[in-house]
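Usage

Read records sequentially. Each one opens with the input sequence:
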Amino acid sequence: MTGVWHPACVCRCGRLWRDAGAWSCGGCGAGVDARGILRWLSANQREAAEPFLAQYRHVRARDGYRVSHPEYYRNLPDVPAGDPQRVVWQVRRESYRRFQHLLHARFRQGGATVLDLGAGSGWLSARLARMHCRPVAVDLLDDECDGLGASRHFEIAFPRVQADFDDLPFAPRQFDAIVFNGSLHYAPAVAATLTRVAPLLSPGGIVVVMDSPVFDTARDGRLMCARNRARFQRDYGLAAPAQPGEGFLTLTGLAGCARALGREPHFFESRGPFRWAAGRWVTRVRHGLVPPRFGVWMAT
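and closes with the structure output:
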């Protein structure tokens, strides 16, 4: 990806490196694969992640997320009217527009460096690159559908890294924004993860959590997770669904994390169309459960 901005990295051998042409380490030879993806997962990390990734692929395929058409990825978060996840993507589109507005308001000079954690296909990074930002897409999944491999469909290039966001290769103080893109609820320890990524921020940088399920109380989050596990067993035949993190966040917990980092929390809720609102009403009234909230949470 010659000509594409690459962030500075610190290799496991201890060498600091950044090469806009090759993006490789002159010390131990670590670098990108034939598809241009930097492989940062260790063998142990890959082995530990595989049970969850196998389940994730299965569920996402059944739910209609794993698509092979290039135009599908190029248009995200906009999807056709008949898409099985159209309602979800409408909520995500509202969150994206909020995030876009926040970036523009805070970094008016343009060219913000953005770390996209949980990037999936890289749709958000592609959108940001079109805005002349400098994104880096990070995900565990590298599949050709729904993972980092699907970024081949975009007309614009950006660096991609297969890594766990609790073990990142980046040198500190270089990102204007770190966004957990529908992903922070997978973290085994949310506070530890936020503490770990905070040094990567440049002065004045922000941490953003976008479209993770958020509750006012942990009890409501645990009830949702229990219902989801039962659904995975019933609908997908998963006898023991993998849950790498708690599966939800609380506004109180996030506020505590922000203040521990010396920052102020803000939450902007996204609201979907009538069909989305109706589903939330059914969840609350028929099932007696508090539905999760989605949107953009920011620590400034």
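Summary fields computed downstream for this record:
- The mean pLDDT is 89.
- Residues 176 and 204 are 7 Å apart (CA to CA).
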